[in-house]
Write a structure and sequence with these properties.
Mean pLDDT: 94
Helix content: 25-40%
Radius of gyration: 17 Å
CATH superfamily: Alpha/Beta hydrolase fold, catalytic domain
Number of helices: 8
Shape: globular
């Protein structure tokens, strides 16, 4: 039986310049626990096992996640897409959400997409500052995205301290056919498992 394919794009951070990035590195505190091997996996790490054998999960590691630039991510994503198959489901978390939203609004996928899940997606349409310099800016219209992807879902938590709820509502305004799912408590979705997402992916026709 043919496996159903997913491509998952992780989050990241960005800065206006290398100087500000370097200043942030110098300012950032560090604890001994930060140097120990990571024992707890996040839901993206467990998505393959949670979905089961009928699925294939691809999770490209995008370049320079802590000093991310859209154009560099695009180069890498273009390479990953050569492995994409018809019916692929796309999942973007945080910065990965705005990456997929912009990419799908400006580029034609080489295959047919089944669905798009935006998990706590960052939103920006600023024409200056760090967002614009780093490329994390959406076009005014997401119509091309809507035309390429038949089902779009947005997951957002009310208590997210990284990406506020207003970002998800701005996506929902530009994507009126999208399903907006709001959680009371979920933070920035850094939990070990994501049963709601797994359930919804499995229910896709």
């Amino acid at each position: 039986m043919k496996k159903r394919q997913l491509i998952v794009i992780h989050g990241g951070d960005f800065y206006e310049s290398r100087q500000k990035f370097f200043a942030a590195l110098k300012k950032e505190g560090i604890e001994k626990e930060d140097l120990l091997p990571v024992g707890t996996k996040r839901w993206k790490d467990n998505l393959q096992s949670d979905l089961g054998e009928g699925f294939e999960v691809l999770a490209p590691k995008m370049p320079l996640a802590i000093h991310a630039r859209y154009e560099e991510w695009k180069v890498w994503f273009d390479k990953a897409l050569k492995f994409a198959e018809d019916g692929v489901t796309l999942v973007g978390h945080s910065l990965g959400g705005i990456f997929l939203a912009r990419y799908l609004s400006e580029n034609a996928l080489p295959v047919r997409a089944r669905a798009l899940y935006l998990v706590a997606p960052y939103f920006s349409q600023k024409d200056k500052g760090a967002d614009a310099i780093s490329g994390w800016v959406l076009p005014k219209s997401l119509r091309r995205l809507e035309n390429q992807v038949p089902k779009v879902s947005i997951y957002q938590s009310e208590d997210d301290k990284v990406v506020p709820l207003s970002h998800a509502r701005r996506y929902a305004k530009l994507l009126p056919k999208a399903k907006l799912v709001i959680f009371k408590e979920g933070g920035h979705f850094r939990q070990e498992h994501f049963p709601e997402l797994v359930r919804d992916i499995k229910s896709l026709v």
